[in-house]
Design a protein that fits this description.
Chain B: Residues 5-94 form the 2Fe-2S ferredoxin-type domain. Chain B: Pfam families: Fer2 (PF00111), RACo_C_ter (PF14574), RACo_linker (PF17650), Raco_middle (PF17651). Chain B: InterPro entries: 2Fe-2S_ferredoxin-like_sf, 2Fe-2S_ferredoxin-type, ATPase_NBD, Beta-grasp_dom_sf, Corrinoid_activation_enz, Raco-like_middle, Raco-like_middle_sf, RACo_C. Chain B: This is 2Fe-2S ferredoxin-type domain-containing protein. The structure holds two protein chains of two kinds. Chain A is α/β, with parallel strands linked by helices. Chain A has helices at 62-68, 75-84, 107-120, 133-146, 162-171, 184-197, 217-232, 247-251, 255-258, 270-288, 298-315; strands at residues 16-19, 26-29, 48-54, 90-94, 125-128, 153-157, 175-179, 204-207, 244-246, 292-295. Chain A has a single domain, classed as Dihydropteroate synthase-like (TIM Barrel, Alpha-Beta Barrel), CATH 3.20.20.20. Chain A has an eight-stranded parallel beta sheet with strand order 8-7-6-5-4-3-10-9. In chain A, strands 1-2 form a two-stranded antiparallel sheet. Chain B is an alpha/beta fold. Chain B has five domains: 4-95, Ubiquitin-like (UB roll); 133-207, Ubiquitin-like (UB roll) (Roll); 215-352, Domain of unknown function (DUF4445) (Nucleotidyltransferase, domain 5), CATH 3.30.420; 373-407 and 518-636, ATPase, nucleotide binding domain (Nucleotidyltransferase, domain 5); 409-505, no CATH class. Chain B is built from 18 helices and 30 strands. A seven-stranded mixed beta sheet of chain B has the order 8-29-28-19-20-21-30, with helices on both faces. Classes of the chains: A alpha/beta, B alpha/beta. Chains A and B meet through helix 6 of A and helix 17 of B.
Chain lengths: 316, 662
C-alpha cells in the first residue's frame, strides 16, 4: 500500500486583503494551511517582500550604505530602484522625518513624499510613522486624506491611537496595520476595537511586533504561530488577518548586523553577516506564518524571495 | 512644642492625649475612633480624610488631596502630625459606615435563585440532628462499701449504660469538680460529652437534668464581617443571629496587611484579642436576644479563610504569605474556647472547619459542604468572590479548587470613590443609552457617598453596553454629555454631581478604577478557565454555578456576565448560596456526620496554585477585555450589545425634537 501523508485540514482561512488600488493592487493572505503546508491546503498569494524605504536616513551600517548608494537621500529613486532592480513586491515607506524627537517634519510635507513615492511605483505602498502615538495620528490623518482612493496600507495603529488612525482610514478607504506588543490576545483585541470602529476586517493587517534573531525572535515566532493556528484551526475571525514582520529595521539594529570588521574581526565579513542576520530572521518568520516581510538590504530581498520560491516548490 | 497634645475627635466626641508629633491616624487608633485607612498609613489610598477644625498640624505634601480640600481644612490623617491641641472632625466618607449594613435588605435575586430549605433536603439527604457534643443525664447509685468505684468510674459506668459511650476521658477541670457537684446534686447530674472524632471527652458536669438546655454557636469569621448564629441543639432551630465588622479591619482591610501586622512584635496577640473581642460581643448579643444562659452553650464551630482561622487560633500566619505559601495547619483539633480567649462557660470547645491550602480556607470547605457540591452528580462551579476569588469545580467524584487574587476592587478598594456597602453607597446603576444620564440607588436610600462593589459592577456593565467605555475600558470622550470628561487622573465619568452627593464632591468612575476592576474580573475569569481547562472541560459543560458570599448576594447576574466576570451560561443554572461559610459551620455544629464530611472534603479537594500555572497569564490577558477577547464565548452579551447599538442608531437618526430622553 502506498504511503499517504497524513494531512490536517484547517477550519478557517486567513482573509484575503487587497493592498493598493487599480493596476497596482496586489492581494495578500487567503491561505487555508499552515505556512507552506501546501499538501494540506492552498496559499493563493505567496508571502510578499516589501522593501523598506525611508524619507530621512541618518547613518546606516556600511553594508547598507554601500547597497543603497546615492538613492539613500531620495525616497522616490530608492523606491523605484527597490521595485525595478531588487524585485520588491511592495514598498514600505518609513516616515522617519516626522519623528518629534528628531526633525519633526510637518505631516503635510511627509504626505507629499508619500504621494510622490506612490506615483513613482507600480506596486502597493505601506506607510509607517515613527510609533509616536500623537504624531502618527496627526500624520496618518493627512496621509489618508491626500491619498484618498489609493488604498495605502497605513500604520502602525496602536491601542492608544487606533481611533484617530482608523477613522481617516475608513473615511478615505485605506488599509490599516494594527501593532501590538508581542501578545496574541492584544493583537486580537486591537482588531476587535478597529472593526468595532467600523473598519472592514479585510482592510486590516497585524503587526505583532518583531524581535530580530537573538533579540526576541522566539517571542515573535510563537505569537505569529499562535495567531496563525487560531486563524486556521480555531477559525477565530479576529486573528484571520495577514501578518506583517518588520524585519529590516530590527535586524539592522543588532550589534551582530551593524558592527564593523575592525570591532569584531572574528565575526567575519560584516556585509554577509548583516544580510544573513536579516534573511535568517525573515526565514524564521516565514515559517511562523508571516505574510508580509519588510526588508532593507537588496541581497536579503533577493535571498528571501528565493527562499519563498523554494518553499513553495517543495510543498507541491 | 508641648510634650503631649490633646486631640478631640468629632462627631464621636472622644478625647485622647498623644505625644506631640504623632500622626492623627495613630491618635484616632489610640482613641478607638475609626477613620477609613486601607493603606496602613502610607499615604497612598487617600481615604483617611479628616477636617482640622482647630489647632496646629504639620502636613506631609500628598497628591491625594486637592488644593481646594486643603483650603477647606481637609488633611490625610496618616500624613498629618499633631502639633498642638486639636479638634478634628471625621467626615462622612471616612467613617466606617453605620452598622445598618447588617440590616440591608437582601434582595431576591432577579436572575438565578436562592437555595432554599427544600433545596437543602435534596442536596444533603444524609443530614440529621446529631451534634458533636451531647448532654447525658445520669442518676447514679450512691457508692457503698461493696460498690466502692471512684466518682469518675461511676460517671463513666453511667455513660456506658445510659448512652453506650465507652472509654470516655474526663477532662481535668471536670474531675476537680466531680466529687462536690455529684454529692450536692444527690447523684443526679448531667455530663456533656464531646465526640472529638478521636475519642470521647467528658467536658462539663452540671447538677440535675440540663439536657434540654443545649445550644451551639456557628460563626463565619470573615475578613471584613463576622456573622454568628445561636442554634438550639434540641431541635436544630436558630435562636438568634448577629453580625458585625471584624474589628481587625482597623489593622488592614485585606488578609495580606493583617499577616504583615501579625508578624510584627505582638501583632499576632493583638489581632487575636481584637477578633475575640468582636466574637465575644456577638455571642453576648446572641445570648441576650435568645434569653438563654451562657452555660447552655456547649460548643462553637467557626469557618473562616486560612488567615482568619490562624489569627483567631493564634497561629503564626507568616508563611502563608511567602512562597511556597504554607499555612501552620489546615486541620485543627477541637480546642477549649478559653484557650483562644473566649471564656463562655466551663468546658466549651471550639472547632475550626479545615482549610485546603493557604488561600482556600475553611469558609470554602464549609460552603462546599453546605451547598452539597460533594454530593452532586452535576458539574458544579462554586465561586466566592471577595478580595480573593476562591472557586471550586467538581461534583461527588472530584473537587478542584483555586484562588485568584482579585484585589480589593470589588469591595470598593483601589477605586477612587469606592466604599463598602454601607449607608449611602451606590448599589444599583442604570445608564440611559441615548443621553448617558445615570439612575442610581443607594444603600439606605440616602444621599450618595461613594460606590460599593455591586454598584461598580452595575456601572461598568452599563458604561460598556451604552458605549461610554470600549472593550478595553477606555472612556469615549467624544460623547455628547458633560458627564464624560478628561481630568488630572485621566478620563472619568461623573456618576453623581457634587451638588447631589453627601460629600459635596463629584462621585466619578475613572479609567484607573475601570482598569483595577478589569484586572479583578480578569483574574476571576482566568481562574475559572484554568480550572475548566485543567480538566479538559469548557464553560458549556457547567451544570450549575453557585455564587457564595455576601457580595454575591447583591450581584446582578446579567451585569456580571456583561463585563465577563461570570461565564455566559443560562441564568437558570445560576444559584445563590448566601453565606456558605456560615451554613457549613452551622451544619457541622449540629451534625457529627457533617463534621466528618467537611473533613473529608478538605482532604479530597485538590488545590491548584495559579501562580505556578503557565497558562494563567494567557487566560488573564484574554480576559482583560469587556466582556472577553473571545466574544463568541459570551453570546448573550453579543446580542445585548447589538440591541443597544440598534437603539442608539435609531435615536441618532430621529430628529432631536422627537427624541424621548430619560
Amino acid at each position: 500500500m502506498a504511503f499517504n501523508l497524513p494531512t490536517e485540514t484547517a477550519k478557517g482561512k486567513v482573509r484575503e486583503v487587497e493592498l493598493g488600488a487599480g493596476g497596482k493592487a496586489k492581494k495578500e493572505g487567503g491561505e487555508n494551511c499552515l505556512p507552506f503546508h501546501l499538501w494540506e491546503g492552498q496559499m493563493p498569494n505567496r508571502p510578499m517582500v516589501a522593501a523598506e524605504v525611508s524619507d530621512e536616513v541618518g547613518e546606516f551600517p556600511a553594508a547598507l550604505e554601500k547597497a543603497l548608494g546615492d538613492v539613500k537621500n531620495d525616497p522616490v529613486a530608492w523606491a523605484k530602484k527597490a521595485v525595478g532592480e531588487w524585485g520588491a513586491d511592495a514598498v514600505f515607506l518609513l516616515l522617519t522625518s516626522t519623528d518629534p524627537k528628531a526633525t519633526d517634519a510637518p505631516p503635510e510635507q511627509a504626505a507629499d513624499t508619500v504621494i510622490k513615492v506612490e506615483e513613482a511605483i507600480d506596486v502597493p505602498l505601506i506607510v509607517y510613522g515613527t510609533e509616536d502615538l500623537e504624531k502618527d495620528a496627526e500624520l496618518m490623518k493627512v496621509v489618508a486624506t491626500k491619498a484618498e482612493g489609493k488604498n495605502l496600507v497605513m500604520g502602525p495603529a496602536k491601542e492608544e491611537n487606533f481611533k484617530r488612525i482608523g477613522a481617516p482610514a475608513i473615511g478615505y478607504k485605506q488599509t490599516v496595520v494594527g501593532m501590538t506588543p508581542i501578545d496574541v490576545n492584544l493583537a486580537k483585541q486591537l482588531n476587535i476595537l478597529l472593526t468595532n470602529l467600523g473598519m472592514e476586517a479585510d482592510k486590516l493587517i497585524i503587526d505583532p511586533t518583531t524581535g530580530a534573531l537573538g533579540y526576541g525572535l522566539e517571542y515573535t515566532y510563537s505569537v505569529m504561530e499562535r495567531l496563525k493556528i487560531a486563524a486556521l484551526m480555531q477559525n477565530d475571525s479576529m486573528t484571520q488577518m495577514p501578518l506583517l514582520g518588520n524585519v529590516g529595521f530590527q535586524a539592522w539594529k543588532t550589534k551582530e548586523a551593524k558592527s564593523s570588521q575592525e570591532e569584531y574581526p572574528e565575526w567575519g565579513d560584516p556585509e554577509k553577516r548583516g544580510i544573513m542576520w536579516e534573511t535568517i530572521t525573515a526565514l524564521a518568520l516565514l515559517l511562523a506564518g508571516a505574510d508580509i516581510l519588510v526588508l532593507r538590504h537588496p541581497e536579503s530581498i533577493r535571498l528571501t524571495k528565493k527562499l519563498i520560491d523554494d518553499l513553495c516548490a517543495v510543498g507541491v | 512644642m508641648k510634650q503631649t497634645c490633646r486631640v478631640l475627635f468629632l462627631p464621636d466626641n472622644r478625647f485622647v492625649a498623644v505625644p506631640c508629633g504623632e500622626t492623627i491616624l495613630q491618635a484616632a487608633m489610640d482613641a478607638d475612633v475609626h477613620v477609613n485607612a486601607s493603606c496602613g498609613g502610607s499615604g497612598s489610598c487617600g481615604k483617611c480624610r479628616v477636617v482640622i477644625e482647630e489647632g496646629e498640624v504639620e502636613r506631609e505634601p500628598n497628591l491625594k488631596l486637592a488644593e481646594g480640600d486643603i483650603a477647606r481644612g481637609y488633611a490625610l490623617a496618616c500624613q498629618t502630625k499633631v502639633l498642638s491641641d486639636l479638634k478634628v472632625t471625621i467626615p462622612l466618607e471616612s467613617r466606617i459606615g453605620d452598622r445598618r449594613i447588617f440590616e440591608r435588605k437582601e434582595p431576591e435575586p432577579a436572575q438565578g435563585h436562592l437555595l432554599s430549605a427544600a433545596d437543602w433536603e435534596e442536596r444533603l439527604p444524609e443530614w440529621k440532628l446529631d451534634p458533636p457534643t451531647r448532654k447525658v443525664h445520669l442518676v447514679l447509685s450512691e457508692p457503698t462499701l461493696d460498690d466502692n468505684a471512684s466518682d469518675a468510674e461511676r460517671i463513666k459506668r453511667g455513660l456506658a449504660i445510659e448512652a453506650g459511650m465507652r472509654e470516655v476521658v474526663i477532662d481535668y477541670p471536670v474531675l476537680q469538680r466531680v466529687p462536690n457537684i455529684i454529692r450536692q446534686s444527690d447523684w443526679d447530674v448531667t455530663i456533656t460529652v464531646l465526640d472529638s472524632g478521636q475519642g470521647l471527652r467528658a467536658v462539663r458536669i452540671e447538677q440535675g437534668d440540663t439536657t434540654r438546655q443545649q445550644s451551639a454557636i456557628a460563626i463565619d469569621v470573615g475578613t471584613t464581617t463576622i456573622s454568628a448564629e445561636l442554634i438550639d441543639l434540641e431541635n436544630g432551630q436558630i435562636l438568634s443571629r448577629a453580625s458585625d465588622y471584624n474589628a481587625q479591619v482597623a489593622f488592614g482591610e485585606d488578609v495580606i496587611t493583617r499577616i504583615i501586622y501579625a508578624t510584627r512584635g505582638t501583632g499576632l496577640a493583638k489581632l487575636q484579642s481584637v477578633v475575640v473581642g468582636t466574637i465575644w460581643n456577638l455571642i453576648k448579643n446572641l445570648v441576650e436576644q435568645a434569653g438563654i444562659e451562657y452555660c447552655n452553650i456547649t460548643h462553637l464551630v467557626i469557618a473562616g479563610n486560612t488567615t482568619m482561622t490562624h489569627l483567631l487560633l493564634g497561629l503564626n500566619p507568616k508563611y502563608i504569605r511567602e512562597e511556597p505559601y504554607i499555612p501552620s495547619a489546615t486541620f485543627f483539633p477541637w480546642m477549649k474556647s478559653s484557650d483562644v480567649g473566649l471564656r463562655i462557660a466551663p468546658g466549651v470547645y471550639i472547632y475550626a472547619i479545615p482549610s485546603v491550602a493557604s488561600y482556600v480556607g475553611g469558609d470554602i470547605t464549609a460552603g462546599i459542604l453546605a451547598s452539597g457540591v460533594f454530593n452532586s452528580d452535576k458539574l458544579t462551579l462554586y465561586i466566592d468572590i471577595g478580595t480573593n476569588g476562591e472557586m471550586v469545580l467538581g461534583n461527588k467524584e472530584w473537587l478542584l479548587s483555586c484562588s485568584c487574587s482579585a484585589g480589593p476592587a470589588f469591595e470598593g478598594g483601589g477605586v477612587k470613590n469606592g466604599m463598602r456597602a454601607t449607608g449611602g453607597a451606590i448599589e444599583q446603576v442604570r445608564i440611559n443609552p441615548i443621553d448617558y444620564e445615570p439612575m442610581i440607588i443607594t444603600v439606605g436610600r440616602r444621599k450618595p457617598i461613594g460606590i460599593c462593589g455591586s454598584g461598580l459592577i452595575d456601572s461598568l456593565s452599563e458604561m460598556f453596553l451604552t458605549g461610554i467605555i470600549n472593550e478595553k475600558g477606555k472612556i469615549n470622550l467624544d460623547l455628547p454629555t458633560d458627564r464624560v470628561r478628561a481630568s488630572e487622573g485621566g478620563a472619568e465619568y461623573v456618576l453623581v454631581w457634587a451638588d447631589d452627593s453627601a460629600t459635596r464632591r463629584n462621585i466619578v468612575i475613572t479609567e484607573v478604577d475601570i482598569d483595577n476592576l478589569m484586572r479583578a474580573k480578569a483574574a476571576v475569569y482566568a481562574g475559572i478557565e484554568i480550572l475548566l481547562s485543567s480538566m479538559d472541560m469548557d464553560v458549556s459543560m457547567i451544570d450549575e454555578l453557585l455564587i457564595a458570599g455576601a457580595f454575591g448576594r447583591y450581584l446582578e447576574v446579567d451585569k456580571a456576565i456583561a463585563i465577563g466576570l461570570l461565564p455566559d451560561i443560562g441564568y437558570d443554572k445560576i444559584k445563590f448560596v448566601g453565606n456558605g461559610s456560615l451554613l457549613g459551620a452551622h451544619l457541622s455544629a449540629v451534625s457529627r456526620e457533617m463534621t466528618d464530611k467537611v473533613n473529608k472534603i478538605a482532604h479530597q479537594m485538590t488545590y491548584l496554585e495559579l501562580s505556578m500555572n503557565p497558562n494563567f497569564m494567557d487566560h488573564y490577558m484574554s480576559a482583560l477585555f469587556f466582556p472577553h477577547t473571545n466574544l463568541d464565548d459570551f453570546p448573550s452579551v453579543k446580542e445585548r450589545l447589538e440591541e443597544y447599538r440598534a437603539a442608539q442608531k435609531m435615536a441618532a437618526e430621529m430628529p432631536p425634537e422627537k427624541r424621548e430622553v430619560g
